[in-house]
Amino acid sequence: MDANWRWAHVIDDYVNCYSGNAWDSSYCPNGPTCTSNCAIDGVDKASWGGTYGVTSDSDGIRLVFVTAGPYSNNIGSRVYLMDTDDLNYRMFKLKNREFTFDVDVSGFGCGLNAAVYFVEMDRDGGYAEYSGNEVGANFGTGYCDAQCPHDVKWVAGEANCNNWKPSPTDQNSGAGQYGCCCYEMDIFEANNMAASYTPHDCAITGFHKCEGTECGDNDSGERYDGVCDKDGCDWAAYRLNQKDFYGPGSQYTVDTTKAFTIVTQFITSDGTDSGELVEIRRKYVQNGQVIENPPTNFMEMGIPPYDSVTMDYCNDIKTYFGDINDFELKGGLKAMGDALDRGLVLTMSVWDDHFAYMLWLDGQYPVDVPADTPGVMRGPCPTDSGRPADLEANVPNSAVRYFNIKYGPIDSTYPH
């Protein structure tokens, strides 16, 4: 369980250091003081399900959106796969490999995100690198991603309480002075209405503590000035004009009312581990049938029928959509391949979106741009959907199940 969800309290006491969406200034006037005063707790067996809404069986895990705990409501969760020593994260080197899992998003609708992805966190959660870290991966420390988030409470071994601003809309979150950036490979960001997979590059390697312009913050107008590519090169069937491919019901090629298998393949230039990453290919399996990724559907606009993420696809589709091609500027697929060589941490989460209501995934986004503008329609969800207050009140029991996770050589982990 990620450190952000764990109880932060005064050392050897029951007093909260962080409560609601704010730090207690008497214990946390600044980062170093807060770090010396406060600690995070472990997670006992009962708390996994009773507090965080995470349960497991022999095949996988189930994450519930809202869990009414003994002291407060828990919203979402973020968990990692540990290595066999239970002290370090399991590192995946995916180049010339495929990653496969089964998923059930039948109970996850508009405005929610069931995410399976890889990020370039430190294997030990920063335990060896940062002196303030008296615990590491086994306490869920060291998170980072390509959005360089500021809501992470502990950054590089220190409390991120400096200039902390509680969120005006999220009772549990806020933003501190520092962000935490790293490469991110989104395998699956989805609900039962829309889905995408997206590589995100960075101009740095490994975990990076950012401040100011290098964080690329949206609210400062510096999204494309930061060290990471926040847009990435996304593959989303609905956005690519394949609107009947993925959705709830038998009329869709992938019927999200039932579980299905997702296969993501990382193809190299010469079919070896040392080759350059040149393609990220997607397959689905449902009802015993292998379903190939659909091609882009813009032939009349001169866009070839791409059916995977390649640099030609990224360059052509970003030009057609009028998007800034920060993915190419940050190194494209070659740079992502280098990150895959270094090793990434498997992350699984569920969350709602207080900034854009998840419309960037499943609806019209931006909402002030005409719907017939290329690339604006990302899914069928209405523009008034995805409000966190509505979701938390009306569909708190929404849940996703991830199971049968596999990893191996190309075409080795699924029936075909």
TrEMBL record:
UniProt entry keywords in alphabetical sequence: Carbohydrate metabolism, Cellulose degradation, Glycosidase, Hydrolase, Polysaccharide degradation, Signal
Presence of keyword Signal: yes
Annotated GO MF terms: cellulose 1,4-beta-cellobiosidase activity
Keyword Cytoplasm: no
CDD domains to which the protein is assigned, alphabetical: GH7_CBH_EG
Pfam (any one): Glyco_hydro_7
GO biological process: cellulose catabolic process
Top-level division of the source organism's lineage: Eukaryota
Its EC number(s): 3.2.1.91
Catalytic activity: Hydrolysis of (1->4)-beta-D-glucosidic linkages in cellulose and cellotetraose, releasing cellobiose from the non-reducing ends of the chains
Entries under PANTHER family matching the protein: 1,4-BETA-D-GLUCAN CELLOBIOHYDROLASE B (PTHR33753), GLYCOSIDE HYDROLASE FAMILY 7 PROTEIN (PTHR33753:SF2)
Family listed: Belongs to the glycosyl hydrolase 7 (cellulase C) family.
Record's protein name: cellulose 1,4-beta-cellobiosidase (non-reducing end)
Organism of this sequence: Meganyctiphanes norvegica
